[in-house]
Write a structure and sequence with these properties.
This protein has helices spanning about 1-10, 85-95, 140-155, 165-170, 185-190, 195-200, 330-340, 400-405, 415-425; strands at about 30, 40-45, 45-50, 70-75, 75-80, 105-110, 110-115, 160, 240-245, 270, 290, 300, 305, 325, 370-375, 385-390, 415, 450, 455-460, 465. The protein is α+β, with helices and mostly antiparallel strands. The structure holds calcium ion (2 copies). One calcium ion (CA) binds near residues 192, 195 and 198.
Length: about 475
Amino acid sequence: MKRLIILLCVLAAPVIAQDKPEAALKPGAVVKDCPTCPDLVAIAPGEFMIGSTPETDDVDVSRGEAPQAKIKIARGFLMGRTEVTFGQYKEFVRETGYQPPKKACRVWDNEFVDKDDATWENPYQPARPLPEHPVGCVSWNDAQVFLTWLSKKTGKAYRLPTTAEWEYAARAGTSTSRFWGDDTDQACDYANTFDITSKEKYPFAWSFSPCKDGYAEQAPVGKFKPNQFGLYDMVGNVWEWAADCYAGSHQGRPRDGRAWNWEGGCDARETRGGGWMSAPERNRIAWPGKDPAERRLNYFGFRVARDLDSTYTAIYDGGQIHRVTLFTGDVAKAKAFWVDALGYKVRFDNPSLGGEEMTKTLKLKKDARAHFVILEPSKTDDPLIGLMGATGQQLAALDRSPDQATKSGDTMMVIKVKDIVATFAKLKDLPGVRIITPPSALNGTGGTGVVGDEGTVLSPDGTRVVIQQAGSGG
Ligand SMILES: [Ca+2]
Ligand SMILES: [Ca+2]
């Protein structure tokens, strides 16, 4: 244990150089974390009413648009200026080799149908995507893997915008159905919707915007006028995944703009903003789609967000998310440990390998001090024993042998380094979380690393979490 503490102190030095604080950015300023990264627009804090008034045209009370709720976005944040593009996603796939578990995507083929040969590369509409097109046929799960990759690439903690952030940014100070007003006949200046151009090519049964925008299907991003915050395609083009569970109501939503997720996971995630194939009543800022996290449709994409001055440093160059295996003589005990002691909302699943998924949602006790200690194998693909401790739990029995660990009655998990990377990427909603173990510190001789940095952070469910280095007292 002594050795552990000494090493942790050595590792405490920051590994990311701090640039000028982003909190000082002027609203509307555009920043970029790498040459091919998404443009990010600085969004100022503020208050707004989420949802629609009962008098709004086409208001859908069944989706919980009304009644409204007052949201205070306390902190500024950065939001993708456009939808994530085909070119950006292609770079991600090239660098990671990411293969989604099941290759089917819903496209139009004389009807809307899931096609096995439809992929982000072959989304049918458009037949041959340009690098500037938004990427489609990406699920919420796929988006998480992309965000993990982008976070590791840039050292910044990328995530999806929360529902509240998305709507705040889309409204850009307006309270109308769309950021340009309520009229659908003006849509063609501001958005790629299901318009006369689309209607001429696709015989969908629903209504259309009574104007011509020139795009029958997807348009390259940024072709229409931006909203008042400088964001493009916040209505139309591709639907955009939000971080939140679909709630069907704004009552009970966190009032500070955080994502609304709950224990046990959710059946559907919110999608926002409508799309090129959607009817005008759905191409409104407030209307929420609800779709399972694994669903792919060629008219669903996403946009990135991140906190100002966020940091993210991953250990190893993981890439794929692999299965996380609970290894313990007492599974029930191990599960209880995770749930009670650690408590982050972490989804242990396996979008890249398919098969059985294990989903666990964890709840951290208020003011718990979470210590993350990892024992390192000689190779990144070796099983790795991670022992997770927290206040009231002992950081003990650090041992590479699962047998010994089980015998000693400790709760052990056998996971891979790559899984650690992926797991902690799931904590991306937590501002301030950093993984500060460099690979060189993990040498297979019982060396330890710590994940997390000192600081107080908020978990997505509003729990205040103090992350403190092991051995630093308290
Ligand atoms: Ca159109
Ligand atoms: Ca959009």
